[in-house]
Amino acid sequence: MHKRELLLKRLDEIAASLQRNDGALELLGLGSVGLGTGRLDEYSDLDFFIVVRDGCKAAFIESLGWLERVRPIAFAYRNTPDGQKALFDDGVFCEFAVFEPRELSEIPFAPGRVVWKREGFDESVCAPSRTWTAESHSAEWLLGEALTGLYVGLCRLQRGETLAAFRAIQVQTVGHVIELARTLEAAMDVERDPFAEERRFERRYPGVADELPPFMQGYERSRQSALAILAYLERRFNVNGAIASEIRTLCDDRPHAP
To answer: Would you call 193 helix, strand, or coil by DSSP?
Structure first.
């Protein structure tokens, strides 16, 4: 069975298991098993919400009998106050959260697909009333954060803080470069994940994505990565000469002992 069919079948099996538990009211598929089933592939997993009767939430989170009825669980842990991540023994991975109806109006989430609901339950309560809006920054702010991120990261590298420098330069600063993509290239018609800008980035901004590899050269190459990022920013923006000079000076300096 192909992974796509396996995942959809597994979700239906989870629905059938929930139906046997009087505390369950609805199973809401999210992401690629929600309204985005066209994106399902061999590397997809199961993301879902379970809506339960008032007072039943803790029981569904703390005891996974309703899930183990479907297939033995090889690994699971509670990753949030509201749910768990679990790996079935056949390699299917899932992430779920459990909510009582009144809670859904208090959290932002993307619209989902009703896989199952108990007869008489008003599924309209599972329509998002709050949408997640990622904070939008100006190009000037993002450029400033990228440049100062390079500077601070290189200062940490001079102290021998290799890990802190790696994160500042090759993770955080690259994150700002990713956000700047929208000012440099028109996004392709590919679904955007409102919770994670890096999802499907290569297809949304293929031109910028092609430039990324030199920005993340690895744990021991933060200097080289910083210089590549700086050169990229200078080609596309009006970069302040003073901060650029300081960054290059730090790249030339030998690190001091921590």
So the answer is: coil
Dist CA 201 CA 183 (whole Å): 14
Q: Give the confidence band of 133 by pLDDT, cuts at 50, 70, 90.
A: low
| Shared-domain flag, residues 155 and 115 | no
Residues 52 and 116 in one domain: yes
Task: Give a yes or no: residue 132 inside a domain.
Answer: no
Q: Is 84 helix (H, G, I), strand (E, B) or coil?
A: strand
> Same domain, yes or no, for 103 and 169?
no
Q: Domain count for the chain, please give it.
A: 2
| Burial of 198 (C-beta count, 10 Å sphere; 0-12/13-18/19+) | exposed
Kind of pairing between the strands at 113-117 and 46-52: unpaired
State pLDDT tens for residues 44-91.
Answer: 899 999 999 999 999 999 999 999 999 999 999 999 999 999 999 999
